Predict the 3D structure of the following.
Amino acid sequence: MARRRHKEPSNTLATRVLLDKVSLEEALIFKGCQETREASEDWLLRKLDLARHRIIGVFAFAVDPISQRGSENFLLGAGPKIGELAGFVGARITHWDWLVSESDLNDRFGRLPRFYRKHLVANLVRRMIVEQLLALRDKHEIYYMDGGWQMIQSVADEYRLGRIVAGELFAHRKVIRLKDDHREWHGVNRGQAENRGWAPGKSIGGVAAYVS
């Protein structure tokens, strides 16, 4: 893959980036053929679904700051405005680069100097959080009451069920761990290895193979 050459942004583009005037679609959707555009739109929808999932996880694992016990999907500490809730939630989620990273930007923005790319990615991640929180609120799946934000139980149950199913699928995979030893031919029959064309050491090395 060819490395993108960085270029200085125009005054207009730089201003739009710094003032958070660039939409998710403009920065992330590729402007090529229709097939590429449709694929990138689908990719963006999956990213938004992931953002929703991570946000729900913050509610599902909410803890009362005083008792340090589960607070039944109730977040204390965020103000009544969506922007305040977005900052509160975003600070409690790690690996937001799973949602958007600099390498995800299309060519127009991916060639900007790093300062602008980092600023743009941070704005796009926040925009994702805000959009998903607004969707949850508009569907009455979260609401503000008694000084905090409450999420309805059915949404939390959906989240936990998804984690259980994913855990069971992973647990049912058979794990075959090959012996971690770097001595030549150690742990394998020499004749068998030679017949299969393995070079010395190829049958070892601490690899874990997952088989459905």
